[in-house]
Write a structure and sequence with these properties.
The chain is α+β, with helices and mostly antiparallel strands and about 230 residues long. It has a three-stranded antiparallel sheet. A two-stranded antiparallel ribbon has the order 2-5. Strands 3-4 form a two-stranded antiparallel ribbon. Helix 1 packs parallel to helix 3.
Length: about 230
């Protein structure tokens, strides 16, 4: 197992936060160290046999004509068994990876998870259901562990992408705030328009000295919470 520098682990926990189980939402790991328990058909061979000797072809020079003769090795596995074993999650990737934690809901229901069977039709293909969620590869690989500044760039870019992605709680919250602000501004503009129209149409009674205008001013004063009439300069 490769050791992650303490400053990198502290940064990921501080910057990326932690999941409900007290573990970081983001982590760096070497691909060869990332193991999962999955089912498969496994062949156990005698010690010392090369990959080619495990059922591969044996090539030998031809004595009579140019070219090569070949025949398949007749070595047989000690046993063939279908079971759950710990295997590399990313056998086709080499280097340091940046993984993100996902909750169990990301992997569907337990029934869906266990509906996938190995070749025997019995053993769960995917192993145990990830009750506490699991980590998935998002960025990399790198030949050496990236500096925290580079990790911060990738995490920030991903977070911004998710925040702007439609159909997520984050995007709904953004839409809610934008919609609320838009409606507030629209209502404010509508009130201004109504006030302008109201004062334009009703301004003459404010300046009039008639008894009716005096009553109108007193009524307006009550509406705006004043005890005396409204004056116009």
């Amino acid at each position: 197992m490769h050791v992650v520098p303490k400053e990198t682990s502290k940064f990921l926990l501080r910057f990326g936060g932690e999941n409900p189980f007290g573990k970081p939402n983001w982590r760096v790991i070497v691909s060869a160290d990332r193991l999962v328990r999955e089912a498969g058909v496994y062949r156990d061979w005698a010690d010392g046999l090369s990959t080619t000797e495990r059922g591969g072809l044996n090539f030998t020079p031809s004595k009579d004509v140019p070219g090569m003769n070949f025949q398949r090795y007749d070595n047989k596995p000690i046993r063939v068994v279908t079971e759950i074993r710990e295997v590399q999650k990313y056998p086709d990737i080499e280097g340091w990876l940046l993984e993100k934690w996902w909750p169990a809901s990301q992997y569907g229901t337990r029934d869906e998870w266990y509906s996938y069977k190995a070749a025997d039709g019995i053993t769960p293909m995917l192993g145990a259901y990830p009750e506490d969620g699991d980590y998935e590869f998002l960025f990399g690989p790198w030949p050496k562990i990236p500096p925290v500044s580079e990790l911060q760039t990738f995490i920030s870019a991903y977070s911004a992408q998710i925040a702007n992605k439609r159909g997520t709680p984050e995007s709904r919250a953004r839409e809610y705030m934008l919609r609320f602000e838009y409606l507030r501004l629209q209502a404010e503009e509508k009130r201004k328009t109504e006030y302008n129209a109201w004062f334009r149409d009703e301004l003459s009674p404010m300046k009039s000295g008639s008894l009716e205008a005096s009553r109108w001013r007193q009524e307006l004063a009550k509406r705006v919470g004043r005890r005396s009439h409204v004056g116009i300069e």
